[in-house]
Specification:
single chain; about 300 residues; alpha/beta; Rossmann fold; five-stranded parallel β-sheet; globular
Length: about 300
Amino acid sequence: MPGDSPIKIFAGSGSLELAEKIARSYGTELGKCSILRFSDGEFQPAYEESVRGSTVFIIQSTFPPTEHLFELLLMIDAAKRASAYKIVAVMPYFGFARQDRKDRPRCAIGAKMVANLLVAAGVDRVMTMDLHADPIQGFFDIPVDHLYASPIFVPYLKDLNLENLVIAAPDVGGTKRANAYSRFLNAEMAICYKLRKKANEISEMKVIGDVENKDVVIVDDMVDTAGTITLAADLMKGLGAKTIRVACTHPVLSGPAYDRIRKSAIDEMVVTDTIPLVIPHPKIKTLSVADTFADVIQKVYTHQSISDNFIA
């Protein structure tokens, strides 16, 4: 019967703040766990309460450093060895998702390896949001709940009441996502076409579509060094865009990202808390995914459909 096994929600050290919000939204408290750290850097997670016969949800985004991923794997293994009934890895941000294929000779497919590691550790289900590549779901032979941030971003964008809204994709790969937003917001679309010489370095970019005197919203799943987003924003501003906003699910924001955003034509960047911001930024506004994950955790636990949680 649904909900027969007790539910326990735990947090990895990388997503403690978000996990507390999710547990609060769900109406419970986080389970107690600890991490024993050795002087050489080795660590050992352990549960400080019984999980025997429980459905265990472990919340941990696997953003850098890699210890966050390994900590999640160890927590899954610990729950399995402590006789948990079911183990669900709640990964708001799924790291290594950019490595979804061999795009050059003799390289690893990191996303597939992470999927293999999670299954080998003993996970029964994975819950994540806005994967960098949708086909990663097929790397698993267990259920994957792939959620979208659009139910969070769309109402926020609607409330802005932008008169001449244009939804823009920062690259050709983001066209599907931008098209979904444009449908729900009844807006026009623009696409940025970019050429890369190597990772995190763009050699050329052009805009397909009309952005003159428009309120542009660039949508993307993640922003890392912010090179693509800021170049696209500056290019659109040069083409006469009135205002420029960015809606980005995962604020990785490494290296020169914060400085690039500050100097760019971006008026506002809206992100979620799948990854905690390193420092506050006047141009960045954070919307929480806690209620979304709490709702889906409840539905998964009680075997209800989660179809209503999808917009895009």
